[in-house]
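Can anyone check this?
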Amino acid sequence: VVFAGLAAVWVVRTEPDLYLRARYPLRYEAIVRTHAENYDLDPALLAAVIYTESRFDPSARSSAGAVGLMQLLPDTAKGIALRTGGEGFVVDDLLDPEINVRYGSWYLRSLLRRYGDLPTALAAYHAGQGNVDRWRSEGVPIQFPETRHYVDNVLAVQERYADAYPDELGG
């Protein structure tokens, strides 16, 4: 009886949770892994940002004008394209999962370099660098409740992706 109980615990701890996989699907796995590696990001983090931003819908568009998997604003993406050698950027480029994740990964890495920690970088990704710079200069925490929720949510979802896809995401 004790052995059977131990075997059940072993299976639960070593097999990916099917509920987690159903609740947090992973799409564009090769693109996520490639750009996570290229930009020195945790693949589970990248998957979490994509899930939180678009639920892996490459055609997602927000009321604020953000486009694609990582919900990039066209002006932000155009700046990224220019900084990374892209030419002839058009907004529809953001509907291409490879381009969108490449630009979003570059942007997230640049925010991590600038701010030095993941929660602040995620806050800037969500609320904009100007807001985060102002909060930091005023010595106050994140002032938008929706941005606090976004940061907390991405960090929680990152753990879920790492747990659900240890082989696929190198967790």
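Reply from J.R.: I decoded it. Confidence is low (pLDDT under 50) at residues 7-13.
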